[in-house]
């Protein structure tokens, strides 16, 4: 009669043997996958020429792929492929541009060209950066400039203002000299002129000057 302990020992030995065989199989698969051109599936030839390249998975393909070159009797890293590898060379990249907000007031532009060259540039956003689009928010429309006398009119008291800013009045410089406020390219400006004829510069109850 076979003893119980002997059966247990035989079962343990069987499980250990199966485990070792599985480990050897896994190692063989990994070794073969890393020693092949991962896209063509052709095994690396026994005769390897100096300068020959191959595609290799990085961390079993989880991280991506890379190109290795044969130099001095061993394979050495040459470059990492951003968009896959084929026949020992990195695939060309698809040109693209992406935007994101570097912070609340800066737009970051990421560009990748066909040669896989990446560039980063930044743009200041006076109105802030839109976190949803990654682009600068549009600037608000300019505030309107308003001239109450609609231009340079010496005989009409006038004032100029931009938006809700403090208005600028027409003022007297001398007895017959007027400093007229008006709108110029969306901003308040001044022009000096002499009152016509025998007119003199006067000031109304609001302190706004005019010629009369």
Q: In words, what does this structure look like?
A:
15% of the residues lie in helices and 39% in strands. The protein has one helix spanning 4-34; strands spanning 53-58, 64-71, 74-81, 85-86, 89-90, 96-103, 106-112, 118-124, 145-147, 159-162, 168-169, 171-174, 177-184, 187-194, 201-203, 209-211. The strands form 6 sheets. A 3-stranded antiparallel β-sheet has the order 1-2-3, with no helix packed on it. The chain has a 3-stranded antiparallel β-sheet with strand order 6-7-8, with no helix packed on it. Strands 9-10-11 form a 3-stranded antiparallel β-sheet, with no helix packed on it. It folds into 3 domains: 4-41 and 50-90, no CATH class; 92-140, no CATH class; 145-211, no CATH class. It is rod-shaped, with a radius of gyration of 41 Å. It has 212 residues and is mainly beta.
